[in-house]
Amino acid sequence: MNSPVPFQLANDLLRHLPGDPELRNFRRQVGSACWSKVEPLRFPDAKLLAWSQPLTQQLGLSPALLGEERFARVFSGSELLPGSEPYALCYGGHQFGNWAGQLGDGRAINLGELHDINGQHQILQLKGAGPTPYSRTADGLAVLRSSVREYLCSEAMHHLGIPTTRALSLVSTGTLVMRDMFYDGNPRAEPGAIVCRVAPSFLRFGSYEIFTARKELAQLKQLADYTIARDFPHLPDSMTPVAETYSAWFDEVCQRTAGMIVHWMRVGFVHGVMNTDNMSILGLTIDYGPYGWLEPYDPDWTPNTTDAEGRRYRFGQQPQVALWNLVQLANALYPLIGDVKPLEAALDRYRQSYQQQWLAMMRNKLGLVQAHADDKQLIEAMLQCFTLVETDMTLFFRGLGELALTTEFHAVPVSLQECWYDAAPDPQAGQALLAWLNRYQQRSLQEGRTQTERQTAMHRVNPLYVLRNWLAQQAIDDVEQGQLEKLHELDQVLQQPYTKQEGKDHLAQKRPEWARQRAGCSMLSCSS
Ligand code: AMP
Ligand code: MG
Fold first, then answer.
1. CA gap 212, 234 in Å, rounded
2. Percentage with pLDDT > 70 across the chain
3. Does residue 206 line the site of ligand 1, with CB under 6 A?
4. pLDDT at 1 over 80
5. Model confidence over 220-255: pLDDT tens digits?
6. Going by C-beta distance under 8 Å and a sequence separation of 6 or more, which residues neighbour residue 232?
7. Are 123 and 113 in contact (CB under 8 A)?
8. pTM for the full model?
């Protein structure tokens, strides 16, 4: 009996979707095709810096099983696993509100797919392993700093319970990449790296938009039918879709997107570049570029320097931007349905469902179970307090969970004052918070929960450890010097973000003052 070839990869997508007949790798427009074959570059000096222990287990593909050196070769693209047929995907997108035409996997190369221990198909994709037909004017590479950020944040989001693409590994290429980090005419050579991303599908809203924009409706239908059969098999008539199937599919994408954004708002995550090419058809958080985490709560904050003027992708606007992106997807899918009504109904449902889910989520953050008519007011009054003095969002909710609410407050507890970025704020800020606290205390007592019940419930939705921008930057500074301890420590601690861990208080601290203006800690450019 033949035993199965170990680590055999498959390529279902290549068998079912139209491909580009051109095999030479040069930048071009690729019409009527979903993918182009492309070989990754080879990096003889590639070195494995980190890998996700939980994900290697899920995939059955670890450095221990493969051998550490081979693992580094495979996940730098230097050695192909059996069955691998690397390819890049074609897609388009709306960038900052404007149609940008063909974009595509400019520096992502898909190696193939396998089934994880749950029987779920998972595609392995290298980011930064060389140019593709979609690289436009760029080099197909990625720098170490942005790769560390993508690796850490993908896994952190997963452990927070947020739908996301995963990161299996982080490999340094041993080569240098030229980047003008501040776009000020001062490029410098930086170390290169490759992250292996993992997801059941890397299709984006822009994957469908490109076909409609090019009036390639046969290809649009092929891609839609493939997506539904493979990743939405529970929909009615999923094997032979009809107009109702496409409507139900769009509705589900709207709902998944709403759920994802509610999670972002729960933990204070700002994506930074919510272009339609960065919106996953599965409702996964995808493409970690100049993202950031709210430290002082500020709905107007964006970490992306490219967006500093218009602030299109600021924290508080993410739900509206997701809706705008869904409208673009609706336009792209319209030819499959031929009727706007079901599309409009799904967009309406997004609006309603987002509101409901947001309210439920905020109630959970406050440890409230029963719905009261004035909950929204209570929440808005709290957010109003955050505008009076910079308040660390993550620490505030943890601190709130730990307060005993038995008696009226006569002063703001020290544990909450410590969440302020200003040690001596305007007395008005303290008075407002005190008034709110007493209102919250009254409301909370009506729930009849014990302090332990309330705290346990709150700590399940309010993380203690998030990937604070300055912590990520400190890890990057060290990794660039060859020191991996901080990277590994963050990787480890962020696997249990809701659980207080011994000796890890330094990872649950307000942003220090020095980090306020430092690049990488408060603002990031798109250069990566
Ligand atoms: P992003 O803003 O990262 O979502 O990228 C937008 C588009 O630019 C996508 O098509 C990327 O593949 C492409 N891109 C970004 N950086 C590079 C790079 N260094 N080399 C090639 N393509 C890139
Ligand atoms: Mg992108």
1. 25
2. 99
3. no
4. no
5. 999 999 999 999 999 999 999 999 999 999 999 999
6. 238, 249, 252
7. yes
8. 0.98
CA-nearest residue, atom 12 of ligand 1: 106
Q: Assign 5 a pLDDT band (cuts: 50, 70, 90).
A: low
User: Which ligand sits nearest to residue 109's alpha carbon?
Assistant: 1
Query: Is the CB of residue 190 below 6 angstroms from any atom belonging to ligand 1?
Result: no
Return the minimum-mean-pLDDT range out of 39-53, 177-191, 277-291. Answer: 177-191
Helix (H, G, I), strand (E, B) or coil at 116: coil
- Phi, psi of 466, deg, nearest 5: -125, 165
Cross-strand bridge partners of residue 127 = 108, 195
Ligand nearest to the CA of 100: 1
User: With a 6 A CB cut-off, is 103 part of the ligand 1 pocket?
Assistant: yes
Q: Is 141 in the pocket of ligand 1 (CB under 6 A)?
A: yes
- pLDDT exceeds cutoff 90 at 300: yes
The alpha carbon of 107 and the centre of ligand 1 are apart by a number of angstroms equal to: 6
Q: Which residues pair with residue 192 across a beta bridge?
A: 143
- Across 148-291, the runs of DSSP E, i.e. the strands, are 166-179, 188-199, 269-270
| Cβ count near 384 (within 10 Å) | 12
Quote the CA–CA distance of 152 and 490 in Å, as a whole number.
Answer: 8
Query: Does the structure show a pLDDT above 60 at 18?
Result: yes
Spell out a b/e string for 497-522, using b for 16 or more CB atoms within 10 Å of the CB, else e: bbeeeeebeebbebbeeebeeeebbb
Q: What is the mean pLDDT of residues 345-358?
A: 98
Find the catalytic residue in 225, 251, 277, 491: 277
End-to-end CA gap in the chain: 49
> How high is the pLDDT of residue 520?
87
Distance 527 CA to ligand 1 centre (A): 10
| Backbone φ/ψ region at 237: left (φ over 0), alpha (ψ -120 to 50), beta | left
Query: Has 478 been annotated as catalytic?
Result: no
Ligand 1 lined by 107 (C-beta under 6 Å)? yes
Ligand 1 atom 4: residue of nearest CA: 278
Strand partners for 166: 198
Per-residue pLDDT, averaged over 414-443, amounts to 97
Is the dihedral angle over the CA atoms 506, 478, 164, 257 positive or is it negative?
positive
DSSP for 183-202, please give it: SSS--EEEEEEEEEEEES--
The predicted structure's pLDDT at residue 2: 46
